[in-house]
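Q: How would the structure tokens look for this protein?
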Amino acid sequence: MKIPRMTVITLGVSDLANSTAFYREIFSTQPVTQYEGVTFFPLPGVWLSLYPLDKLAEDIGIETTEPKHHADSLPAPLVQGARSEATGSYVAGRRGSAHAPAHSGHPDFRGVTLAYNARSKEEITHIFARAAEAGAHIAKAPQDTFWGGYSGYFSDPDGHYWEVAWGPMFDFSEHGDLRFKA
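A: Here is the predicted structure in token form.
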């Protein structure tokens, strides 16, 4: 069986109009469609879907409480757990159950980031400027990394974290798909 390609990433959002405006600014494009309370943005190789959080939870069949607005709840960054010898990254100190995911101890971090791989450091600078203008919280300004690249993180109005990274080992196909150099 061939591994299926990811085709849609859906983000549960607290304010669909606000999030649509945010991503319109970030991507410098109009959404292709806003269908029955869902907004879709075409990205190379995948669609980004914005769906009201309560409706997404209802569709999944779970209950949720309305999250507090992300900008009102930004504590200083926390890192918990042990540093991995293999990767140099911090890993969570405990595992979660099937119903309660493990997290870093940061109340707004869900343990998931979305990533955009840029073709240059300059492109990252441009993206971060657009993100800041759109109201993003800059969690980590772009900087040189231990792995030889350049990256930073920002979050959208609902606290979804995006990494924007460039690396000397990245290459792109003619269609914009990320490849790693051999």
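The chain has three helices and twelve strands.

Residues 121-133 form the longest helix (13 residues).

Upvote if useful.
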